[in-house]
UniProtKB/TrEMBL annotation:
<comment type="pathway">
    <text>Lipid metabolism; fatty acid beta-oxidation.</text>
</comment>
<keyword id="KW-0012">Acyltransferase</keyword>
<dbReference type="GO" id="GO:0006635">
    <property type="term" value="P:fatty acid beta-oxidation"/>
</dbReference>
<dbReference type="InterPro" id="IPR000542">
    <property type="entry name" value="Carn_acyl_trans"/>
</dbReference>
<dbReference type="GO" id="GO:0005777">
    <property type="term" value="C:peroxisome"/>
</dbReference>
<feature type="active site" description="Proton acceptor">
    <location>
        <position position="314"/>
    </location>
</feature>
<comment type="similarity">
    <text>Belongs to the carnitine/choline acetyltransferase family.</text>
</comment>
<dbReference type="Pfam" id="PF00755">
    <property type="entry name" value="Carn_acyltransf"/>
</dbReference>
<dbReference type="InterPro" id="IPR023213">
    <property type="entry name" value="CAT-like_dom_sf"/>
</dbReference>
<keyword id="KW-0813">Transport</keyword>
<keyword id="KW-0276">Fatty acid metabolism</keyword>
<dbReference type="InterPro" id="IPR039551">
    <property type="entry name" value="Cho/carn_acyl_trans"/>
</dbReference>
<dbReference type="InterPro" id="IPR042231">
    <property type="entry name" value="Cho/carn_acyl_trans_2"/>
</dbReference>
<dbReference type="InterPro" id="IPR042572">
    <property type="entry name" value="Carn_acyl_trans_N"/>
</dbReference>
<keyword id="KW-0443">Lipid metabolism</keyword>
<keyword id="KW-0007">Acetylation</keyword>
<feature type="domain" description="Choline/carnitine acyltransferase">
    <location>
        <begin position="30"/>
        <end position="573"/>
    </location>
</feature>
Amino acid sequence: MTNELSDPLQERTFQYQDSLLHSRSPRFVFSSVRPFATEQEYEATVENVRSFQEGVGQVLQQKLLHRASTRRNWLEEWWLNTAYLELRTPSQLNVNFGGPAPYLEHCWPPAEGTQLQRTSVGLWYTLYRRSMAGRSGLDMDQYRMLFCTCKVPGVTKDTILNYFKTESEGPCPSHVVVLRRGRIFTFDALHDGKILSPPELLRQLQYVTECCEGGPEGDGVAALTSEERTTWAKVRLSCTHLISLDPVNTSILETIQSSLFVVSLDEAKPYATAEDYTPLTLAALAGDPTIRWGDKSYNSISYADGTFGCNCDHAPYDGMIMVSLSYYIDCRLRASGGKWKGSDMVRDISLPEELLFRLDDRVRHDVQLAKQHFLETANNLQVVCCAFTSFGKYAIKQRKLHPDTFVQLAMQLAYYRKHGRPGSCYETAMTRRFYHGRTETMRPCTQEAVLWCQAMTDPTCTVSACVNKLMALAQNGEGFDRHLLGLYLVAKEEGLPTPHLFRDPLYAKSGGGGNFVLSSSLVGYQTVVGVGAPMVLHGYGCFYNIRDDRIVMSITAWKADPQTDAESLFQNLCSSLHDILQAATTSQL
């Protein structure tokens, strides 16, 4: 990582250059690998690490240091390519994240006939938020990617196009794209330099709806964005499929790619509640692919029952950027009661334009195949998103425990109870204190956590302090997963054989190489919750928020694996939360 943004006098990274390899390797061996190893396996891995440290690891470290000396962030390009752009699996379910909007808990409970009016108000707040500042002291580059950003498929690697500009940088696209019933519309969200008001936005959305009601469904070209990446790239580029060389199609693609964001007018009625978000959460991640442009950085989804969600490409930015936007809108809606209190006047503005691709039968067949493939995968995804309402942050802090430590230990205990073994766990740690920083990995499944799960009789501050220390290390750019990735990629770029360390069985078993069975993320201490698919077929995705009086958890699993079950893990999690609080109370922490 590069130096912290708050220290402008230091421009580059690796303050403790020569000690990094030796300080991080022991953490990898003991903290991460030990819980999954027999004594014999552990000794073999220790020898592998020693050999790596004393041999090729030193060579790779020096090459990595050289790379760091020529870049403000040595990891940025590598991470984007390796974690996102070079992946060939379909993005929309495997990479994208989404989530339900919390507005249904207060001013916007499910109610038919409210979709367009509520969408116009929410859309106005989103457009207004476009000009707001973010949190000071953190790298803000990812906020540039929230609007006017789209991933473009490539045969071997995707690219990201970003059209966003600040006022000082010049003109920025100001149109939005609306998808309904497989059809695509666009309109400018500005008129005479001013954002369209909710009544004006409502008029535009009503026009789109009127065009679609009673008429045929559109071609559903958006479904292609849910396809395997190379397949989608070939469909897009093939001149026999028309999309690339036809000037009309090229213009439409650029209009979608450069748009502020996509508004999806969905006819589904998830009818979620404040205690059970499951239907709405599932719809956000696995809903109709013909009205989600899966490559866009932000799809704002509006449902027929007046509830809302989102689906976002993960490549341009991390989840907390969307959480910031969603929480801002939630706060504004609470303050206004979800009502527009300004003028009802509608200016003389142009009506939305429908965007019509020129397709041949082969492309239409590809669209149908994409829909089929998406629905098959979506039907394999199990989602549970429910609120644990017995207690929350307030009760946990009364016991002098850190709330996130508390939940992570409960997650470890729940997995251990269900599967009879420790679960390699990834928890996102933000590194935006650094130039163009994104995330590092915290590994909560330590040897201490496993021993605690086995005993579960006397939880003490020792475990809490250990996990908090790991989180602090990760947030300060001292986690080891991204460092190990850098060493691996140096070897790859230099054409060297893959070092034995990365072929050690315990490397993957402990989660290395993206093999964590628990992929988790604390979304925050407010109302917003998210959802993402498991990292591996035999794993779970776990997003959660911790509020004063409750913990809202979304858990995903793949139905094809007979050992995993999201509902069972959630029930185990609830009982674990109760047990830990009871133990903490009894021990009088």
